[in-house]
TrEMBL record:
Gene Ontology biological process: endoplasmic reticulum organization
Record lineage: Eukaryota, Viridiplantae, Streptophyta, Embryophyta, Tracheophyta
Superkingdom in the source lineage: Eukaryota
Any Pfam family: Lipase_GDSL
Signal peptide residues on this chain, from the entry's feature table: none
Membership in a protein family: Belongs to the 'GDSL' lipolytic enzyme family.
Keywords, ordered alphabetically: Signal
Gene3D superfamilies (alphabetical): SGNH hydrolase
Protein name: Uncharacterized protein
InterPro entries noted in UniProt: GDSL, GLIP1-5/GLL25, SGNH_hydro_sf
GO molecular function, one term: lipase activity
Length: 336
């Protein structure tokens, strides 16, 4: 895709994405894609694959288990010390829940919970594999409000409201994921983590786009349909992607990625944590352990004034709650 950077990016964005910015903040070169096996991996490797999933048997992508297997097969490219000091960055699970919603139009609360539990159990198993290979520092951004993605709203036929099921499942996943990280910090000696509340960041920007410098958080820059939710190509890219939160139906623009990365890297505990932002995690000594008292403390530290997900489906109510709570973020200046 020819993007803001002036050349084809090879990504679903108009420019830089998460690992690019984080590498820049760390003062290292951009992290190379592992599939390009002739490049220098001394600064780390990016095992991410488009549309990667946690569960299932993919035809054109990889599961998390397969990605971790590739890491395990090649871990000796790095010393044990390097593997221990590295940060392992994760954002995965969106397509599991989007596919679930498509394939299960009729579902019970027990079925939804069981599926989320399967996803979290699989993530736990792979984290323990990486930990067993020396990994100690894990950074997670939780899942976005999936029902607010342009591709989901467009498919649902009502672009003014976010779709309930995907966002509910993302919220269930996010709570279970944070609980898992708290538990692993108790179980595994030296296990350290950072947890970025991506859900709330995107939620805010969808509802109050102009507050965060975007002209729209509803329509995508690239694509076709009522909100450009599908079929993005070089023939239908907008002229001003910086005005859009979403580049295509599922992915952020460079500007959206930049705002998120600043929050992930160095913002205060109301946006990221507990117990560390990514910059703190990077410099945290390996023998340091921060254990929160329980999951309730962890959830409270992540978002003290978090608004219930139900408010997301009533835009006017959501705007009012945000105003009443002063709900505005302050941006302070190995990937899977």
């Amino acid at each position: 895709m020819l993007g803001t950077v002036g050349e084809a990016t090879g990504r679903w964005s108009d420019g830089c994405i998460v690992p690019d910015y984080l590498a820049s903040f760390m003062g290292i070169p951009q992290i190379s894609l592992f599939l390009r096996n002739t490049v220098d991996f001394s600064h780390g490797a990016n095992f991410a694959i488009a549309n990667a999933i946690v569960l299932g048997s993919p035809l054109e992508t990889l599961t998390l288990s397969q990605q971790v297997m590739k890491f395990s097969e090649n871990k000796n490219k790095w010393t044990h010390q390097a593997r221990s000091e590295a940060i392992y960055l994760f954002y995965i699970g969106s397509d599991d829940y989007l596919n679930y919603g498509k394939n299960n139009p009729s579902h019970s609360d027990d079925q939804k919970k069981a599926f989320v539990d399967r996803v979290i159990t699989s993530i736990e198993a792979e984290l323990k594999v990486i930990y067993g290979s020396g990994g100690r520092k894990f950074a997670f951004q939780n899942l976005a409000p999936l029902g607010c993605l342009p591709v989901v709203k467009q498919a649902n036929g009502n672009v003014k409201e976010c779709v309930r099921l995907p966002s509910e499942m993302a919220e269930m996943h996010n709570k279970k994921l944070l609980q898992l990280l708290v538990e692993l910090s108790r179980q595994l000696s030296g296990f350290q983590y950072s947890f970025y509340d991506f859900f709330s960041s995107i939620q805010n920007r969808v509802i109050k786009s102009k507050t965060y410098t975007f002209e729209t958080g509803i329509a995508a820059c690239c694509g076709t349909g009522s909100v450009n939710g599908s079929s993005c190509s070089t023939n239908n890219v907008c002229a001003n992607p910086e005005d859009y939160l979403f580049f295509d139906g599922k992915h952020l623009t460079q500007e959206g990625n930049l705002q998120a990365r600043h929050l992930m890297w160095g913002s205060d505990p109301e946006v990221i944590g507990p117990p560390n932002n990514l910059r703190e995690l990077l410099f945290l000594p390996l023998d340091s352990t921060v254990i929160l008292a329980d999951i309730q403390e962890a959830m409270a530290a992540t978002r003290p004034s978090q608004i219930n997900v139900e408010s997301l489906y009533d835009i006017k109510k959501k705007e009012s709650e945000m105003e009443n709570n002063g709900f505005i973020e302050l941006i302070k200046l190995a990937h899977f």
